[in-house]
């Protein structure tokens, strides 16, 4: 993983995968892949509107990390033979529209979107970490490392959003709540469909 991050070596033998809770593993990889895909589309939408503004380089930096996250989950989808959510075409459009729409509110609007999404994703990753620790922290050690690293990077994006005046967005609490409800719905659906 670029930047010296955690890597997850896929288990190449059936024996090495024995004992893993396949439904839990598949649900986690599927929803995280969908989430990182959606995040990429959000940042693409923000860059389409604000890419040449003063905040463009900051958005690009966060987007580059999201690209690394998506690349890792693409690899895990193949390694563990997990099918993607059938909702990817919808997340493609919805993510871009959310990113571009929030960016049309200006830098603060884009950062408010970032704070709302990244807070939801950090919470989601924390729930997954708890689940894997309850299952067997040793068995899922490498996946836990990946999720913890990505959670920390998502938290960093959240903090960047706050540093760049997200809370000064008009109707910030309403916007944040609406986006987070959308994130929760996307997580729920992507885990199952």
From TrEMBL:
Keyword annotations from UniProtKB, A to Z: Iron, Membrane, Metal-binding, Monooxygenase, Oxidoreductase, Ubiquinone biosynthesis
Pfam families: COQ7
Pathway: Cofactor biosynthesis; ubiquinone biosynthesis
UniProt GO MF annotations: 3-demethoxyubiquinol 3-hydroxylase activity; metal ion binding
Keyword flag Membrane: yes
CDD domains: DMQH
GO cellular component: mitochondrial inner membrane; nucleus
SUPFAM superfamilies given in the database record: Ferritin-like
Tree of life domain: Eukaryota
GO biological process, one term: ubiquinone biosynthetic process
UniProt name for this protein: COQ7 protein
Species of the source: Regulus satrapa (Golden-crowned kinglet)
Gene: Coq7
């Amino acid at each position: 993983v670029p930047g010296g991050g955690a890597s997850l070596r896929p288990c190449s033998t059936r024996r090495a995968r024995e004992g893993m809770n396949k439904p839990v593993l598949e649900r986690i990889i599927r929803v995280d892949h969908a989430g990182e895909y959606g995040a990429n589309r959000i940042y693409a939408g923000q860059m389409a509107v604000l890419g040449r503004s003063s905040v463009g380089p900051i958005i690009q930096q966060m987007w580059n990390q999201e690209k690394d996250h998506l690349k890792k989950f693409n690899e895990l989808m193949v390694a563990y033979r997990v099918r993607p959510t059938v909702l990817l075409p919808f997340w493609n459009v919805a993510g871009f529209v959310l990113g571009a729409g929030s960016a049309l509110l200006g830098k603060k609007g884009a950062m408010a979107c970032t704070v709302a999404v990244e807070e939801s994703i950090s919470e989601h990753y924390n729930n997954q970490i708890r689940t894997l620790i309850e299952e067997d922290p040793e068995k899922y050690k490498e996946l836990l490392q990946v999720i913890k690293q990505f959670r920390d990077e998502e938290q960093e994006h959240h903090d960047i959003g706050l540093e760049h005046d997200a809370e000064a967005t008009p109707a910030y609490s309403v916007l944040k709540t609406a986006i987070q409800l959308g994130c929760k719905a996307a997580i729920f659906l992507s885990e199952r469909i």
